[in-house]
TrEMBL record:
Protein's organism: Callosobruchus maculatus
Subcellular compartments: Membrane
A UniProt-annotated Pfam family: F5_F8_type_C
Source species taxonomy: Eukaryota, Metazoa, Ecdysozoa, Arthropoda, Hexapoda
Domain F5/8 type C: 1-88
Membrane-topology descriptor: Single-pass type I membrane protein
Protein name (record): Uncharacterized protein
Location of the Laminin G domain: 92-272
Alphabetical keyword list: EGF-like domain, Membrane, Signal, Transmembrane, Transmembrane helix
InterPro entries in the cross-refs: ConA-like_dom_sf (IPR013320), FA58C (IPR000421), Galactose-bd-like_sf (IPR008979), Laminin_G (IPR001791), Neurexin-related_CASP (IPR050372)
A Gene Ontology cellular-component term: membrane
Annotated SMART domains: LamG
Length: 337
């Protein structure tokens, strides 16, 4: 569902109401993402001032989700909340890429030469690196969007032979849907992941982006200028819009009505399968698994399910590169962080 606004009330004829809350959302009822401000912090929504008045909040960027979680942070007397959500149906056109896949849109017949454009889409993945979007022109222009170490990296060049790089997001390989927006107006560029925004001025004097070879989604057939990762993307991409055109929908229509010459579709699926769950059994008190860590991250996110007959045990441990650590354990069947 595409959720656009939320109305709240407290308990009628009382002083029991929620004054402030945050919102998280998801698609499977288990994994949730926080609705964030443009600076990256959780957005705090203003609630009610009495039990009867309706307070209305609108989402500047709609929430696309099946599950909505409201997390009260301040309230009067007791947490009492009546809620109504407003929105509309959401049509999802998904495509899955397996690391050897790509989708190519042929720009030889319809080259792009524009002062402004907007690209927006959703993605989810469990892989920290991969080429997401790529296109270039014969005059040296290119646009390269890629996942690198769990962050989204955009390299863009308007033919000035000097690249402009923007990076946003963290821990994006969590298998949760993330929203991406790239909006350019001449040399002004806005890059957003999950409403966290970075803006910059593209280097050089040129203002037009010229792309006239191919527009690649999910990977490239060989190494290209502007790319810093070598592997193709693994995961799902949903409703990729170039300006007002949903390319995923266009591809499906073209293949159905005999205009497939515009597109080259390699090893992709019209679905978004969930990653296979691989259970691991630790057979002794000394058994453990050591995974590669990440440096320079502002946050850490981990989730897992477990079962055991033991009454004590250390389940997760990570030492920070500076000082301190985080440990998840259970002692007499109670979990502790």
């Amino acid at each position: 569902m595409n959720v656009t606004r939320i109305w709240t009330q407290g308990r009628p004829h009382t002083n029991e109401y929620v004054m402030e809350y945050t919102i998280s959302y998801g698609t499977n009822g288990q994994d949730y993402a926080d609705y964030k401000e443009s600076g990256g912090d959780k957005m705090m929504f203003r609630g009610n001032s009495d039990g009867d008045t309706v307070h209305k909040n609108e989402f500047e960027v709609p929430i696309i989700a099946q599950w909505i979680r409201i997390n009260p942070t301040r309230w009067r007397d007791r947490i009492s909340l009546r809620v109504e959500l407003f929105g509309c149906e959401y049509d999802a056109y998904d495509m899955y890429f397996n690391g050897s896949s790509l989708l190519k849109y042929d720009l030889y017949r319809e080259p792009i030469a524009a002062l402004r454009e907007t690209i927006r889409f959703r993605f989810k993945t469990t892989t920290p690196n991969g080429v997401v979007l790529y296109s270039r022109g014969t005059q040296g222009d290119y646009l390269a969007l890629q996942l690198r170490d769990n962050r989204m990296l955009l390299n863009i060049n308007l033919g000035f032979n000097e690249v402009t790089s923007l990076s946003v997001g963290s821990l994006l390989d969590d298998n949760i849907w993330h929203d991406v927006v790239i909006s350019r107006n001449r040399r002004d560029i806005l890059f957003s992941v999950d409403r966290v925004v970075v803006q910059d001025k593209i280097k050089g004097e040129f203002q037009i982006l010229n792309l006239n070879t191919g527009f690649y989604i999910g990977g490239v057939p060989n190494i290209q200028e502007g790319l810093v990762v070598v592997q193709n993307y693994t995961g799902c991409i949903e409703n990729l819009y170039f300006n007002s055109t949903n390319l995923m929908y266009e591809v499906k229509e073209a293949l159905q009505y005999g205009e497939s010459y515009k597109y080259q579709k390699v090893n992709t699926l019209w679905t978004c399968p969930e990653p296979q769950i691989v259970p691991v059994t630790f057979k002794s008190h000394q058994a453990h698994a050591r995974l590669k860590g990440y440096e320079g991250m502002a946050s850490l996110n981990s989730s897992f399910a477990f079962r055991t007959y033991e009454d004590n045990g250390l389940m997760l441990y990570h030492a920070f590169s500076g000082s301190g650590y985080v440990a998840v354990s259970f002692v007499y069947w109670k979990t502790s962080v």
